[in-house]
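Onboarding guide, step 5: your first structure request.
Type a short instruction followed by the sequence, for example:

Predict the 3D structure of this protein.
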Amino acid sequence: MLDITENTTSRWGNSCQTHQILSLTGISFQRKSIIGFVELTIVPLRDTLRLIKLNAKQCRIYRVCLNDTYEAPFQYFDPFLDICQGDGKQRSLEFYSTHHLAAAQRVDPDNNSGELVIQVPPDAAHLVGEGRGLRIGIEFSLEQPQGGVHFVLPDCEGNLAERGAHMYTYSYENSSRLWFPCVDSFAEPCTWKLEFTVDDSMTAVSCGDLVEVVYTPDMRRKTFHYVLNTPACAPNIALAVGPFEIFVDPYMHEVTHFCLPQLLPSLKVSAKYMHEAFEFYEETLSNRYPYSCYKQVFVDEIDEDINAYATMSILNTNLLHSTAIIDQVYITKKAMAQAIAEQFFGCFISMQNWSDTWLPKGISTYLTGLYAKKCFGNNEYREWVQSELQEVVKYEEQFGGIILDPSQPPAPLPIAANTPAPVPRVPDPGFYFPIRNLHTMSPKYIEVLRKKAHLVIRMLEHRIGQELLLQVFNKQLSLAANAAQQKIDSGLWSHMLISTNVFTKAIFTVTGKDMAVFIDQWVRTGGHAKFSLSFVFNRKRNTVELEIRQDTTNQRGIRKYVGPLLVNIQELDGTFKHTLQIEGTVAKADITCHSKSRRNKKKKIPLCTGEEVDMDLSAMDDSPVLWIRLDPEMTLMRAVQIEQPDYQWQYQLRHERDVTAQLEAIEALQNHSTPATRLALTDTIENEHCYYKVRCRAAHCLTKVANAMVATWAGPPAMLAIFRKLFGSASCRRIIKQNNFTNFQHYFLQKTIPVAMAGLRNAHGICPPDVLTFLMDLFKYNDNSKNRYSDNYYRAALVDALGATVTPVISVQQGTAITAESLSIDTKAILEEVTRNLNLEKLLPCYKYTVSVACLKVIRILQKFGHLPSNPHLFRAYAAYGQFIDVRLAALEALIDFTRVDGKWQDMEFLLDMAEMDPHPGVRHRLVRLIVENPPFERAHKHRLDKPDLVDRIWNLINGMLSHDTKLRCDLVDLYYTLYGSKRPLCIPIPELAAITKPRKVGPHISPERDIQPNPVNVNLETPPDIEVVLVQNKRKASPSKDLPGPSNNMSSECGPEAKKQKDDKTPGSNEGKVKSEYYSDNSASLPGIMGTQGPVGFEPGMFKKEQEDHKHKGDSANKGKKKKKDKKKHKHKHKHKHDHKHGKDKDKKEKDKTKDKDKDKDKEKDKDKDKDKDKDKEKDKDKDNNKSKDKDSNNLKIKDETLSSASSSPSPDASTVTLEFVFP
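The system replies with structure tokens like these:
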């Protein structure tokens, strides 16, 4: 809810929302459908309010009613159904990005826009008065939603409850519009009443307090009534329905946990210490938890591990674990803590605009970090911060600087009085996607933006102090808590929203410090600093001559830093801190040393922690400097390169107590392969006082050092002695002890050392036989019988180690098949062990199938290196829906690698089909991310998969097929950029040339086996918009688990005519020639069966089969004669063209089409066998479509929901033509 005064006018211009009722009365698991009703109470801010804009996608709207009395006409449009507005000649991301942003802003509630536009009828105008509440009731339904709602129906015996069938909503940023009409803005909080009617065996969990559960008279269904009196915005409303087992937290009775059947024991273990997170946050923020209750629901097949909503979180069931699991504990504890932190910042305190998203994301992650530091220790916390910083640096250097808040440019630098001030401009970071809307940003960008936001909040902590920063948070929470108790007319609800400017003012109010310059530097400007430090010791003057350079400021993602910079110099007499002022690209400083060189004298050296240690100084030169560090507290967004001798890195590794310094030293020592480095790393691995991650990283570093020293290495393979000393039995070191994982440091080392050793290579570049024998012994003697913890991660690590020993096959005779006899002894041993473990998993599956995942990776390595025949069939079987998600992703990773190395077009199609149609939303998203990370070919390199078919397939998906799935659409934009860059793909001919060559080239490109590959040469784009989408979406339903039995066949067959009718009604003849006008569809025809209502818009058909027949031929006659010939031509081309949304067609294009049609007629005349008359042609097409659908998939065909409902803006083809063309099985 916005402040009714100033804020509201700037945002929702005409009205603000005060209350919303959401009632879902018919949730059908069998049909995967929902019937519902919403009532929004808005307060008009002007008497002249005549248009009300709301957000709704996928919803079929039946009627809109004002104050229960007046029917209101409404229009629906969704620009995401055809982002580029039919301009098919373009295939560049530069062109696409402009239209992508325009589409997003056209329905952005923060721009007073929306997909659903409701008109206040003249006879209801008297209801609209400034400050008087107006109730808008909307009846709607969802049928087979493609996004926002997910139904999980396990394929097993029993009723729905016994099978564990459940459904839940999920959102990507603000996407509640996918399951109910609303104002889908983070800045419109209001109070809620929520009602859900479900089967008797099901439980509905939603936001707010459960006030009552009412049974229907037949006792077969029940209605859950929730009330949320604390204002919350629509994106923070969620629902989960299932046969949940319920567990009330024994430490905090306001907290309730829900999980699927049989998982209660794991839930109790996983959530055992969750109450500690609540206590920690309340104590840290000096504020109570803002809601009266909290619910945690664990569901299956969810994309993200956590989704936080007002008073509840929906979490991935794979976060649950038993007491025997070690590795998952850290992940689960942190995930639950993150969900609770987001209750404070993200749900309770929302954001004023999309550009303020960095604040709730950054603050909640910062708070989670503080809790993780308390739980897991300072070392874990600092290592995590360092890894977050490295990820931000890596992303920015690859793609460009992330601007956390691009809504306002940074203030210009101070200039002389007589110089005219430049107009401040938002710097262009040069991304290939628009960064000015959440629905156009790359998911990877948003992921890294969260990390950067956390680091910026942490930088603030270092500038104003943690105590004052927490006071700022406390102030925001206190103001919001007070506002939540008031009515909307108090004007205080704006305190429940946070923005960059509000946050900056709050810091000033609490601390008296003006942080505007800091905000301009790190929030409104993107990029990070990059420092290169080198130094020379001047013996005569006893000074260190430091030089800090910023040479790379013109590179992508890197910016010049001006300001203070801390340098720590560890000398013989202690640690000394020096703050340098950085102004230019080169900063030089002479720093006087406090110590004299005492190379030959033994003395205890004081460290920064205050302790004193003995050091062997024999490796030193005359300098008293032991090591130098730059910005040791990570108080800047920066990358650092320090040049110092190897012995100084060795001292830093051995004696510096900060884990980030130790990890930096290990990184640097990879390039210094000397016996001294080997000794320092060995000592680190053996040092029990050292943090376990440092010891594990040292093991991997020692592998690289040993491989570089292979010619001079003496003794047994590296780390073999260490492992046997730590884990070998007392009587015989070669046989390891029974597993005992009570010492977690030893557990992680025991997992890591075998993998590190497997990377060792001898002088011939192959793994030493001793190492392979050692690994086989680990399998042989592995005994977990007396261990209280599971060894699944350890066994998976051993399998990983086997994979790491594999090297490319030495010689292969051309043409000889690989057989069991032709395998080397070592390879055969590896293959037998992997096969044994993979088969054992089928009988005795371990937690999360970790061993299966490792086995699949090793099999792919064996294939890649020529030991096994390269074959994708095994991986396809493991990638199928129904396997555990980690196994599927491992198999898909192998398939992606196979496609890159050996792949054919069929393999690429298989991956794209899965990315488009897989029932699991998380698999769809992660599959595309995996392809982005390992693309099938390098950009601008000739490759057999680099062809127009692939361009068109991805382009069609991002342009109109994924209106319901922002995340997947933006993932595919990333893939398109990875393959082709932001310019036009090289494999696509220039449009002018394509127009010349089209008549000759159209024929050969037509292939009945292809579903969605538009012919790139064909520039005739005046295609009826729905046909191609219908065909593609038929494919969308091909997944077995997405199909509905029986009736859906009939429903699907009727949808073409209905859609056509709606579109013809709304496309008047006078609009001919107008190209990119409004997308509105006037909804003037009543729907049969609903008295006096406006007809439905915005939904897929299926509920009114008979009535559609009655309306089939209306409104088509005007266009029929004009289009008859053209339609037949289009159907000849298998509907491969991109669908367009246009009000009319230019005359020039019509003339071109006539010419092209004549050319096609000439071609047809030549082909006498095929084209004796047009009716026969149609029959052939019909048969082909039938055969194709049978060959491709025997399942039902499915129509794209929104395309049919959105009343798209182009004239429709003749209804009868469509029904003739599509024959449904």
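Each response can be followed by summary notes, for example: The chain has a mean pLDDT of 83.
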